[in-house]
Design brief:
Length: 345
């Protein structure tokens, strides 16, 4: 097994004035209906559980190449200059086995396996009690340090509900000669349609052995409308992208963890567009509202301190500065109103 990871950046889009409801995307999440191969589940569970240990479970080798926003025609857009990294090493094989064991545990599949018109098998929305290894791993200082270094900005996981979203697909069919020729001609088959993700950055880990896999690349659309392939699982919300189908290897299991800026004062472009239809509404909104309110509180506390300091020093009240700050917070609150609505009724 050869675990690989990559980091991808997303860029902002103008906020919607009101929620847009489009057919199936507004429906409540549904349990997965496509049965997983029993051999896949049993082999994943056949692992002695371990507590996350950086010395034992991390194998960090930084990527050799990082694409910049300018390289894909989006210079000056987004919250940092990093667009997407090449696949690189982050976890050891032992760590990958621990993650697979948690993903395919009986409790996990019973409570967190869902499907949608977009993907037939996903495991998501699990807490630290169900998956202690995965949660501790993604919050570890060592992982946050390398992810932030590649992204070019200090990051933390977006919120607990989104840690370790897992996409599962399996296909034991080997490609025919016609399919190989089609792939060579650029007529690739889509595993996932063109889409944009919901978070500023994502870290994607391949939990499958890719040595016999054909295809499986991710295609991103550049700022001028061209397309380009990237090796390994790559994702970005407003870097429009799609994953290509893979053949051989039997399975394609990837785990995706989104990140946001650690600082509450950095622009936060998080939306819930792609995750709302596949999430438990109460849990998703609790996590989203809590971190956004904490950010807002930090901003209010800072602004109050500045106003009090200015007054104590006998300065004039900065009317234009206060109005500009209020407008920023108004937009922040309006974006929350856009993202949070009752889609289950």
């Amino acid at each position: 097994m050869a675990p690989s990871v990559d980091i991808a950046h997303t860029v902002p889009t103008p906020a919607l004035k009101k929620p847009v409801v489009v057919g199936p995307t507004n429906k409540k999440y549904t349990p997965a209906t496509k049965k997983l191969p029993e051999s896949l589940v049993l082999s994943a569970r056949n692992v002695e559980k371990q507590e996350f240990d950086p010395a034992r479970h991390l194998n960090i080798i930084p990527p050799k190449k990082i694409l910049r926003m300018a390289d894909i025609g989006l210079e000056g857009v987004g919250i940092s200059d990093t667009a997407v990294s090449e696949p690189f090493s982050l976890w050891t094989e032992e760590a990958v086995k621990q993650m697979r064991a948690e993903i395919f545990s009986e409790a996990m599949l019973e409570n967190c396996q869902v499907s949608s018109s977009f993907a037939s098998n996903m495991v998501r929305g699990y807490n630290a009690k169900l998956a202690p290894f995965i949660h501790k791993a993604y919050y570890s200082p060592e992982v946050l340090e390398i992810v932030s270094a590649i992204a070019g900005i200090d990051l933390i996981p977006a919120f607990d509900y989104e840690i370790g979203h897992c996409n599962i697909s399996f296909n034991e069919k080997k490609p025919t000669q016609a399919e190989l020729e089609k792939m060579g001609e650029g007529g690739d088959s889509e595993a996932f349609a063109w889409h944009r993700d919901s978070f500023p950055f994502v870290c994607v880990t391949m939990l499958s052995d890719c040595r016999d896999m054909v295809g499986g690349e991710t295609v991103i659309r550049t700022g001028d409308g061209r397309t380009m392939k990237t090796r390994g699982p790559t994702m970005g919300r407003y870097i429009e992208h799609m994953a290509l189908k893979s053949f051989g290897g039997g399975e394609r299991i990837s785990i995706i963890t989104p990140f946001r800026p650690r600082s509450p004062f950095v622009r936060d472009d998080t939306v819930l567009t792609t995750v709302r239809p596949i999430s438990r509404q109460d849990l998703l909104y609790h996590d989203y509202a809590e971190y956004r309110m904490r950010n807002l509180k930090a901003r209010v506390d800072q602004q109050l301190e500045l106003i009090q300091k200015d007054r104590s020093q006998g300065g004039h009240f900065n009317i234009q500065g206060a109005r500009s700050w209020l407008r920023e917070q108004q937009e922040y609150i309006e974006s929350m109103l856009t993202e949070m609505f009752d889609y289950e009724n």
